[in-house]
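We modelled the chain as a single entity of 280 amino acids. Its sequence is:
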Amino acid sequence: MGKATTGARAIAGIDMGGTKVKFILRLHGMTMYESVLPFTARSSAEFSDLLLRGIADLRASAAAQGTAIAATGVGCAGMVDQKQGVLPFSPNMPGVRNIAIGAIVSRATGAPAFVENDANCALFAEWADGVAIGRRDVVMFAVGTGVGGAIVANNHLYVGRHGFAGEIGHMPMVQHGLLCGCGRHGCLETIASGTGIERYVKSALQRGVPSAMTVKDALSARRIAEFAQAGDPLAQRAFRRAAYYLGCAAAAMINTLDPDMIVLGGGVAESGLLLDGMKR
């Protein structure tokens, strides 16, 4: 790819999840650079180092293309203070607390940075230029490492008084259920996320439930999905169970908000094994 036109400036994007971080650089609607780093941070300091490492590569790529970063949008899993650009807490990032992501990114790039919950970013994209164009009221379920959620109400992204609205994954579903990363028990995320599916399969295998899977296979929801698609009963049961509880949560959101549409996204949802079960 040739160098960018002199004076043109690029937009950077950072997608921070519980297992990986994606960095992209776009100019004139085209992706100029993309990289993925595994999320290995177990403290706030390690989190900052990971961010800075990825940003250094973004800046180097921009310079190589004859451009610079004009602004950065950051989508981060967890409870985000949009006004301050701070991540107070993320259930799937143990040890990471009160990180001033906006300030870190802005200093490193020399340009403005805007921080938002990743599910809110995903739903806004679908509402502005995706499957939910023209819809006034939309709810999103983002099923990946955890279960995120987002709400568009009356043509506005609804974030609530403190900016934390849409945390669908932390709806209580099972009394005296498993411990969630948020500190409570029985949240939807403990059952229906990739992590919840993995935990369910691992526990079943350790109890001797018949399956073609090994405990190593149970470390990856993507791998479990492959077994489910191949007909493994335990893998299929794990996804049916997740879909059932997601369907219960979706029904609650429908009865509460009466949306035009429910959008299902996230890496685990890409398997195609959840939607039919949710509808039932």
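As a brief sanity check on the tokenised model: DSSP finds eight helices and twelve strands in the chain. The radius of gyration is 20 Å.
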